[in-house]
Amino acid sequence: MCMNYADLENNLGEIDKARAIYTFASQFADAQYDTDFWSKWLEFEVRHGNPRTFQEMLQNNRTDDKIDIAQKADIPSKLKVVETNKDKHRHRDTELDTLEKIKRQRLG
C-alpha cells in the first residue's frame, strides 16, 4: 500500500513526500522478505536522490543485509548516477527560478 502511495506522490512530482512515505514504510519492511520494497526505494533514490538520501535509505535498512543489498546494487556506479541527477536538478531549479523571475517581472 505504501509503495503505491509513494508512486502516486512521485508521479505528481512530490519527491520529498514520496521519500517520507518510503522512510515511514521502511520500519515495517524486512530486507530478507521485502526485497521489492527495497529495490523500488533504491531505484527511487538513484533517480531523485543524492548521496545523503541514499545513505539514509541504507541506514533505514536495519538488518545485516544492507551491505549485501549495497553490493548487489553496485553502489559506486549508482552514486555517480545520483551525482549526475543532482546536477540536472540544479540546472532545472535554476531554469525554474529564471522563469519565476520573468513571471514576477511581468506581473509586477
TrEMBL record:
<dbReference type="GO" id="GO:0071007">
    <property type="term" value="C:U2-type catalytic step 2 spliceosome"/>
</dbReference>
<dbReference type="InterPro" id="IPR011990">
    <property type="entry name" value="TPR-like_helical_dom_sf"/>
</dbReference>
<keyword id="KW-0677">Repeat</keyword>
<dbReference type="GO" id="GO:0000974">
    <property type="term" value="C:Prp19 complex"/>
</dbReference>
<dbReference type="InterPro" id="IPR045075">
    <property type="entry name" value="Syf1-like"/>
</dbReference>
<dbReference type="Pfam" id="PF23231">
    <property type="entry name" value="HAT_Syf1_CNRKL1_C"/>
</dbReference>
<dbReference type="GO" id="GO:0071014">
    <property type="term" value="C:post-mRNA release spliceosomal complex"/>
</dbReference>
<dbReference type="GO" id="GO:0000349">
    <property type="term" value="P:generation of catalytic spliceosome for first transesterification step"/>
</dbReference>
<feature type="domain" description="Pre-mRNA-splicing factor Syf1/CRNKL1-like C-terminal HAT-repeats">
    <location>
        <begin position="1"/>
        <end position="92"/>
    </location>
</feature>
<protein>
    <submittedName>
        <fullName>Pre-mRNA-splicing factor SYF1-like</fullName>
    </submittedName>
</protein>
<dbReference type="InterPro" id="IPR055430">
    <property type="entry name" value="HAT_Syf1_CNRKL1_C"/>
</dbReference>
